[in-house]
Amino acid sequence: MLDKVEIRAIIESEIDKTEKQIIEYKELTKPIAPENSIGRISRMDAINNKSVTEAALRKAKEKFEKLKFALTKVDNDDFGLCFKCRQPIPVGRILIVPQSRTCVKCSN
Question: What number of other Cβ atoms are within 10 A of residue 89's Cβ?
Answer without folding.
Answer: 22
